[in-house]
């Protein structure tokens, strides 16, 4: 009887083609996907008609910060309806054939502790900060305790 020594194949002993992937195949496929999307004019579902929005708060206010570069002040609409803050930006085309080039919108559900009648918004250098004040009874208050 003759013993044959068997070695389990490893990545080092086999060429990369044996595994169906090259060293940079994941990167190459991602770059190909991005270039194909750009060439076809389609957009990814994450960047379609949406724009980046940051939501944060302190003890007095809730803040929504949206990045809208390239828009004019007249192209931006801010509405608070039924506990939702809706930000909408419309970019008009210069050509007569396409009167509406792009429409972007984003909606943020507001918590119950926000006072909707004191909302302020300003548009400076492509950034739209929206400040929503909180209700007075929700703000934390320090109460002194009397020892009797």
Annotate the secondary structure layout.
Elements: H1 25-40, E1 53-57, E2 61-67, E3 76-81, E4 84-92, E5 100-109, E6 120-121, E7 127-133
Antiparallel strand pairs: 1-2, 2-7, 3-4, 4-5, 6-7
Question: Characteristics of this structure?
Answer:
148 residues, three-stranded antiparallel beta sheet, flat, four-stranded antiparallel beta sheet, Immunoglobulin-like
In short:
The protein has a domain at 53-136: Immunoglobulin-like (Sandwich), CATH 2.60.40.790. Helix content is 11%, strand content 31%. The chain has one helix at residues 25-40, and strands at residues 53-57, 61-67, 76-81, 84-92, 100-109, 120-121, 127-133.
């Amino acid at each position: 009887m003759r013993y044959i020594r068997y070695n389990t194949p490893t990545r080092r002993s086999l060429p990369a083609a044996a595994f169906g992937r090259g060293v940079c195949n994941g990167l190459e496929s991602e770059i190909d996907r991005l270039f194909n999307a750009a060439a076809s004019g389609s957009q990814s579902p994450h960047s379609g008609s949406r724009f980046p929005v940051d939501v944060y708060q302190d003890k007095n206010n809730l803040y929504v910060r949206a990045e809208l570069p390239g828009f004019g002040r007249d192209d931006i609409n801010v509405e608070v309806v039924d506990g939702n803050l809706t930000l909408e930006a419309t970019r008009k085309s210069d050509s007569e054939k396409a009167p509406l080039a792009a429409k972007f919108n984003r909606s943020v559900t507001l918590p119950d502790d926000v006072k909707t009648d004191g909302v302020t918004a300003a548009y400076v250098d492509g950034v739209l900060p929206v400040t929503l004040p909180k209700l007075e009874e929700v703000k934390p208050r320090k109460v002194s305790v009397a020892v009797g």
